[in-house]
Amino acid sequence: MNLKQQQYINGEWVDAQSGKKRSIINPYNQEVIAEVPEGDEKDARAAIAAAREAFDEGDWSWTPASERGELVTKIGHLIERDQEELAYLESLDTGKTMEESRGDMEDIAGVFRYYGELADKEGGELIDAPVKDSVSKVVREPVGVCGQITPWNYPLLQASWKLAPALAAGNTLVMKPSEITPLTTIKVFELMEEVGIPAGVVNLVLGSGATVGAELSSHDDVDLISFTGGIATGKKIMQSASGNVKNLALELGGKNPNIIFADADFETAVDQALNGVFFHAGQICSAGTRLIVDEAIHDDFVHALVERVKNFKLGSGFEQDTQMGPLISAEHLAKVEAYVEAGVKEGASLVVGGRRPEDPELQQGFFYLPTIFTNCTTDMTVVQEEGFGPVITVEKFRSEKEAVTLANDSIYGLAGGVWTMDIAKAERCAARMRMGTVWINDFNLYFPHAPWGGFKQSGIGRELGRPGLEEYTETKHIFHNLKPEPIHWF
Ligand SMILES: NC(=O)c1ccc[n+]([C@@H]2O[C@H](COP(=O)([O-])OP(=O)(O)OC[C@H]3O[C@@H](n4cnc5c(N)ncnc54)[C@H](O)[C@@H]3O)[C@@H](O)[C@H]2O)c1
Ligand SMILES: C[N+](C)(C)CC=O
């Protein structure tokens, strides 16, 4: 493999100080695909010190935003140049199909281009102060040293949403990718070195959440922590970040409702409902795993879903006709199995799937069949908790009000969809759905220009769009009295 299997700290490629290594496993066949350093708190502290020095003593945050933007844009160009290699590494590491990985790489290049171009467009503003002979200006400055922690399901995509705006805004950073899927993140650090990001500005530490992640989220020299992952980890990070009152951005999970009205375009809604869940085997924060279907079409809709699901082709992400790859790990497969068992125990009707496939070719991988539950109610675990696997739950509704009430009955508020030909009804529902993103007659679409993030326990803050850059800035007001005089109060 043409990849530096090392950490990147202060402009140097290094092993873990302990010398320990971790094997990276292909989820399709459990083969070892790489051996990478298993960093720990010591490596994290070295990286934080490098990022601190680069921020406090270096030129990066004082470099004109247009120059920083050019470098960020160049990273995007190199991602385009190396798209095939990056997509290969992503599919090898996560099991997703090459088609999905190629799509991710196009999105990622677009994110770097977007923030590269935005870097010098947020120069601040003059305020018309209510004070004679004064200048009052609001400027945006980098936050400082950023800790960035990413999950395994979209390794490089989630990293790009953090790296590109942090750099464009003039911060320095330490990134920790998921310990099980570090390969494309390592590659992008090679690309950042190639474009000439100065030493110490970007640092990569590999290792577990309990060691490296915990150090990043608690260390006093880290000014901001940006985390994408599960709610339980997010809550821990929030607590550790309170020590020095870090800026905090949390992108957490979802159990996302997809409302299908009887007047929706039936074929399109069926097709996109399947895509909204089974893409990447349901391992997507915004997967539309909670279908809420109009009673009038419920039975036909479920029938159409089941007929399609039966023909899904599971297999290697490198085979042309594969539609769904494996789950990420044995541990995650066991979680999905337990989740489905809970659904059965709680009385949901299992209409398809609910087990591992029997195909001999799939026995070495962490595969699980696409699964559909009907007769679901809001009190069930499978309706309330994120399963992060290829599992749909279907609930029925009788009125618009009931559909929205069901959709909002959740601790999550990441994303949701509504399908109808009635424009006013669609807008009413979208306005009442308590989620960071609502799609009307679409699902799971995201792009760099529009903010992404969650209501309720799905998170704090936004990535992408202008808000995604603002996360990485502090706002400063500078007031200049042009005619200072004594006040004679004291
Ligand atoms: N909202 C979004 O945009 C979004 C996007 C992708 C994934 N997700 C969510 O991510 C979750 C799946 O990812 P996961 O299983 O990797 O999540 P996770 O919370 O287990 O791990 C995410 C990252 O946090 C690290 N970590 C674990 N414990 C830590 C600790 N105590 N301190 C600091 N860091 C720690 C892990 O090593 C990993 O790098 C799902 O819940 C999914 O919905 C959300
Ligand atoms: C944010 N997204 C949809 C790219 C990946 C969520 O897991």
UniProtKB/TrEMBL annotation:
What InterPro entries does the record tag this protein with? Ald_DH/histidinol_DH, Ald_DH_C, Ald_DH_CS_CYS, Ald_DH_CS_GLU, Ald_DH_N, Aldehyde_DH_dom, BADH
Q: Where are the transmembrane segments?
A: none
The superkingdom listed in its UniProt entry is Bacteria
Kind of enzyme, top EC level? oxidoreductase
Pathway, per record: Amine and polyamine biosynthesis; betaine biosynthesis via choline pathway; betaine from betaine aldehyde: step 1/1
Q: Which GO terms describe its molecular function?
A: betaine-aldehyde dehydrogenase (NAD+) activity
The Swiss-Prot or TrEMBL record describes its family as follows:
Belongs to the aldehyde dehydrogenase family.
Kindly give the PANTHER family that the UniProt entry links to this protein.
BETAINE ALDEHYDE DEHYDROGENASE (PTHR43860), BETAINE ALDEHYDE DEHYDROGENASE-RELATED (PTHR43860:SF2)
The protein in question is named: Betaine-aldehyde dehydrogenase
Q: What is the lineage of its organism?
A: Bacteria, Bacillati, Bacillota, Bacilli, Bacillales
